[in-house]
Amino acid sequence: MKKDFKANLDKIFYPDSVAVVGTNKVVGTVPHDILKNILDADFNGVVYPVSPRERFVAGIKAYKYVTDIPDPVDLAIIVFPSSVVHLALEQCGQKGIKAVIIISAGFKEVGGEGIEREKRVKAIADKYGMSIIGPNCLGVINTDARSKINASFARRMPEEGTIAFLSQSGALCTAVLDYAYAKHIGFSKFISFGNKADVTEIDLLYYLKDDPKTKVILMYLEEVKDGPGLMKAAREVIKSGKPVLILKSGRTSEGASAAASHTGSMAGSDEVCDAAFRQAGIIRCQNVDEMFNIAIAFAYQPIPKSNRVAIITNAGGPGVLTTDAAIHDGLELAKFSDETTAILKKNLPATANIKNPVDVIGDARADRYSVALTAAFKDPAVDGVFVILTPQSMTEIDLIAREIAKVAHHYNKPVYSSFMGEADVAQGIDVLQRNKIPHYTLPESMCRAFATVYHFSQNQKEVPKPAPVFQDVDDARVEEIIQEVKNAGKHYLTEDLSDELLKAYGLPIVESVLASTEDEAVQKAESLGYPVVMKVVSDEIVHKSEAGGVILNIRSDQEVKAAYKTIFKNAKTYDTHAKVKGVLIEQMIPEGEEVILGLNRDNSFGPVLMFGLGGIYVEVFKDVSFRVAPLQTSDAEHMIEETRSARILHGVRGHAPRDLDKIVECILRLSQLAVNHPYIQELDINPLIVRDKGKGAFVADARIMIKHE
Amino acid sequence: MEKKEVQERVKKVVANVLKMDPEEIFEDANFIFDLGADSMQSLELVAAFEEEFDIEMDEDKALSVQTVADAVEFISSYVS
User: Fold this and answer.
1) Least buried of A74, A131, A174, A653, by fewest C-beta within 10 Å?
2) pTM of the entire structure?
């Protein structure tokens, strides 16, 4: 049956009636506590306990089966053991319930029979057009007064807020709720989606995009099943103005070691995930602290119009620390207007520093903070204020916190705070947190949060440049080559076929010819014109340089003959079984910068392109960047710019800039190739020799691997 | 032993352990979903069946039995 996700999810978050299926009277067990949490949170609807044996639970009449309930039920929360969940779910389907949360564990996460149980549950959901959250989850919380439902076994109902939190891990949810409670952080929706057998993080992102109560979306993810789907959903959410912050675990490089190409060995799952998130505009966080540091900045304060900030402090050292951190994160210290300077001069002691960072001096009470803060807010050159406080014997910690909240209330500019210390400043921090003034233990975290919010707003303004669709490509020839290699039972393309394939996609290939005898080699080298390069052609030899199968800068007939013999001898020494078809003779490529372009396929995100400084350096410096295909032109440009070697390509120490436009074109052609030809598993162009601006580039060496299935 | 007899005695044991009226125990009843047995009661049921029929059952297999009818079949394989 067709599912109406939006309507079904509405019933999960805003049900008029809820059945807790499989509940009992045993306090301290999940089946009981879920019911109790719904009652305690003052749910704005009707609750039906469903229990095989109890006549009532928590003083409410209980039904043996969900089908016995005389009235319609919007949401069922199933808490039965996993072995009978399908029975309960089937009855929910018969009852016409479209929204279900399965709390029970014992499904895919336990393997074996659990996998089958999960498949059965999904099949029932599809049969009745139901949407299911879970199984194996903590549940769902909606703080919106219209619903006020705590359909979870968390210990407490969080405060109402504008942050939505989604998590694959239920246990992390409980930790986050406790963390947030201590910091007075509220939530709009709180969702533990567990095994995501039916409703996934992608469905939830689309739902939250249109949720008027949600301003910021946070997510904890353990696995990405549908990378492109996640990127598409995130892009739409972000386009609507809501930032998406993801804490993704599993930062390992598993799988990378098994990869055959340079790109494969560099493109570990985590690097790809990083790149894909960046490409989609997702803010990836390293830990819970960082996630909430950024989230509260988005949730509590206006977006800064520029990166110019004012720092107000009562101590020199922390002021300098904050300045350093701000500059490091790309922020600027605002230059105060004459009016601001005059106000500060008039109202602060002579020993105070009236320039940015403003030092109101250690003995400052609330009045000095108030003056400085008001002056900073009023200054048109200031688009954000950082307030630093260190607890000195005369410091009015609580009063200053209240003053910050009071003054900030009158201005549409962001203010962040850092009350440094722990015990003495605790009460002041509490005041700030209750008044939704973002507080940070470390000035560095404060600057990072501000910079992240600022960059997010800048990225929102960027108009992406779409990629051209190259019409001069020969897809039929590429398919023929792939088929030819598959028919021969091979995985790697020989160099001549690699060149031909890349040529069919308009990549700049150096003129080359195959010679199978020494005399033919001499003749063909002469016709190409010296100097030339000679390379071994053998299906068995993939790493030609390693096998001594590449000789550069050959300048005469004699040198061609000598090179021919050397290459054959080296090939046989490297692999006695190697069948050498001959040598490839190429024009020597003129001087240029070596870069690497690569293609690999990621299990979650699909085709991934790589760019970096080429030659042997790619593995030493790992100065590479990734993007998921298909790429926009702006993606290809960002890919180059985010590497350290971009500076070299722009021209350093008087050297002319290189042909960056040609690199962008090559990346975009590879992107089109990757999308149109899924049988190309891995591809390295290493190096691509990039000449000076306007003079193009050449593929000096390439390796292409195809997959058979 | 006749299956009918096994059936009657199984119902009697279930009624005793779960403290229910034997009339409420229908043949297709699922121990957890219909009769509300929890994990402790499931263990008690296995022990009570062993005592009633003077048999020793494979505990893992016994615990995977879901319905009264399945229990009758399972116990019959021991007593016949």
Assistant:
1) A653
2) 0.89
